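Hey team,

Filing this mostly as a record. A colleague (T.K.) asked me to run one chain through the structure pipeline before their review meeting, and I want the input and output archived in the tracker in case anyone asks later how it was produced. No errors, nothing strange. Just documentation.

Input sequence:
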Amino acid sequence: MNALGACWGRELEPWSGAGSGAGQVWTALGVWPLLAMLASGADGPARAELERALGVPAGQAPAAARELLARVEEVPGCAAALGLWTAPGVEVEPEWVAGLGAALWRRLTGDPAVDRAALDAWAADRTGGLIRRMPVEPADALLVLASALTVRTRWAEPFREDRGRAAEGPWARRPFRRLSVSSPGLYERIAVAETAAAGRVTEVRVAGGGEVDVHLVLGEPRAAPGAVVSAGFELVAGAARRTPVAGLADGEPWPGLALESVRASAPRDVGVLETVAFEVRAELDLLAHAGLFGLRTAAGDGSHFPGISRSVPLRVGQARQAAVAEFGAAGFEAGAVTAVAMTRSGIGAPPGLRVRRATARYDRPFTFLAVHRPTGLVLVAGWVAEPTEATG
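Output structure:
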């Protein structure tokens, strides 16, 4: 799952590159269960391509998807759901529906306005209002398969919020909502690494109150966004070795990091994080990366899904994801709806007491990964190209 998310992030780089002014957010967790259900009903080259994208045999994929979504449902602050809609006259194979869950099956009316309202209502309900519109168009859709995901966590140590400006870089001289937090516990969650993708990076793990942490990863000023995203996934996978700041010397040059010895009132080293509030929204076309998701053959003419329906030849006509992520002083929340629409296929200290202080400043574009702490599963990832501007 994380490998799929990392590859997708690299392919998104042209949309999130430096100077584009566009942030990015995506979740492979929203896509993978849909690919699993498509693979179980596909045959021929379409099935083989989907299996390669999934990394598991098609016959095992639906059970794995159900297990995955059930595990997400157990994570405090997280929710996941699947939905299926079919047009009048489309007969769906009972075995395939059983693999998805018959209770999730609904009928389209054939009236685009009515169907649009129903699909949008489902998206809003399943994401708590974070996503209010289904990202595919119901007109001409014979079958719609969708997933919804929400991630919410409150910080174990809330931030203080004020106005800030960057001294240099893309955000220089622009007022933004600055967030800061300082604690001995944070000192232990700041690390650096030499990564294959982006070279030197600094990582801060912002601890959530439940099972979800948000990792903030900052590269060198000239590092490409896609490279920094890949570096973040490297760190989560353990492919790059972290060095805690306790193992660094004062003054070592790491991105956004200042290490120094200071006077203090208590004999504990302190970590400081200065970052920005951000909100990132994106709507992404999966078919623009059809090869990555195993959808190249599935989107072409031909009867690729006899295991889904034998009454009508189906192909993937649309595949899109709408996602949002918001990072604020009190916590983090994100939501995503991913959908596939199938259409008919043509054929002050005491003297001498000194401690270390590690200050990480994220005042230029960086990547974030919301990670399920017990398993290392990346729930949502993204690129922060713009901070939330300060008002008033």
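Quick notes for T.K.: Residues 12 and 226 are 7 Å apart (CA to CA). Residues 154-277+352-384 form a domain with the Alpha-1-antitrypsin; domain 1 fold (CATH 2.30.39.10).
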